[in-house]
TrEMBL record:
Annotated source species: Lentithecium fluviatile CBS 122367
Keyword NADP assigned: yes
Record-linked Pfam families: adh_short, adh_short_C2
Keyword Membrane: no
Residue ranges constituting the Ketoreductase domain according to the UniProt record: 18-184
GO molecular function list: oxidoreductase activity
Name of the protein in question: NAD(P)-binding protein
Family label: Belongs to the short-chain dehydrogenases/reductases (SDR) family.
Keyword set, alphabetical order: NADP, Oxidoreductase
């Protein structure tokens, strides 16, 4: 290692030049991710969600911000798509293929709470009350798992050709590469043609937003939410193994409490036995982790689960 090499934080922690897709990008953590990427020079950010008006409002919020980058090009695009309707995801892929032809980073962020039986579980004083808590809104498990878990595979699978195209653009040998002592080869001349730095060896990446609930044995929101996010987290890790031979990375982000529609009824301050940091997460917390993962600083990170929970896992029974 050359410890005298100049380190540039704006390269290590930056979305400069990246094409990024974010599902559920119109609010909450998805919008915070979009803000971080937008402010640090992403070339194009596609926000996917079911409600086009919410996405368009999100774009207006980002573009009118005093922190918005000074650019004459259109960076933010809203696409109406439902992660549980594969035809709409395929349509989004087709549009992005025509407009830019590749995706550097796919962020699986869409999610819902589902059956909110966590409080009922803790309040139960009889076995019948506990039974009722278990079965509360039982018919909503399907939609919770479809959005929070199944869509990780459906969306990731649909975008694989565009992620592969991003690698090809960066000079990486295409297709499956196997065998010991047989690394994937990168043609460095492709980097200069694409306007990229000569030392940029990042490969395309999938980032799945799971939850601190993925590891917690206490169901605060509900059993379906915890189960679906735990499964999403594990799928994100599995993808890093499955896609290793294909040159596509996969990492997972596990947030604690953050301001969003899902936490609108949660008090924003916490005791040391709840969240040692004492507060909900903010846009800076999101930016720190996401810019690390998408920037050059995260090029060597693959198959990880990054916590950003204010220490919440440290004060509860967990499986981490």
């Amino acid at each position: 290692m050359d410890v005298q090499a100049r380190l540039n934080p704006t390269d290590l922690f930056s979305a400069k030049g990246l094409v990024v897709v974010i599902t559920g990008g119109g609010s909450g953590i998805g919008l915070a991710i979009a803000s971080a990427l937008y402010q640090t020079g992403a070339a194009h950010i596609y926000l996917l969600g079911r409600r086009l008006d919410i996405l368009q409002d999100a774009i207006k919020t980002l573009e009118s911000s005093p922190s918005a980058p000074n650019t004459s090009s259109t960076v933010l695009t809203a696409i109406s798509a439902d992660v549980t309707d594969q035809s709409t995801i395929d349509a989004a892929v087709e549009q992005i293929t025509k407009e830019v032809g590749y995706v550097d980073v796919l962020i699986n962020n869409a999610g819902i709470i589902g059956p909110a039986n966590g409080q009922d579980l803790r309040k139960a004083e009889s076995i019948d009350q506990l039974k009722d808590a278990f079965l509360k809104d039982y018919d909503k498990w399907h939609s919770t798992l479809a959005i929070n878990t199944q869509s990780v595979i459906g969306v990731s699978g649909a975008f694989l050709p565009l992620l592969n195209a991003a690698n090809t653009r960066r000079g990486w040998a295409p297709g499956k590469v196997t065998g010991d002592g047989n690394p994937r080869v990168q043609d460095a001349s492709a980097l200069s043609k694409a306007g990229l730095d000569a030392d940029d060896d990042r490969m395309a990446q999938i980032i799945t937003v799971a939850s601190v609930a993925s590891f917690m044995r206490v169901a605060f929101s509900g059993l379906a939410y915890s189960a679906s996010k735990s499964a999403a987290m594990h799928l994100g890790k599995m993808l890093s193994t499955i896609l290793a031979e294909w040159g596509i990375r996969s990492n997972v982000v596990c947030p604690g409490p953050f301001p969003s529609d899902m936490t609108s009824k949660v008090h924003p301050k916490f005791g040391t036995a709840q969240v040692p940091q004492g507060r909900m997460g903010g846009v800076g917390d999101v930016a720190g982790v996401l810019l690390f993962l998408v920037g050059k600083g995260g090029a060597y990170v693959n198959g990880s689960a990054q916590l950003m929970d204010g220490g919440r896992l440290g004060v509860f029974p967990t499986t981490y």
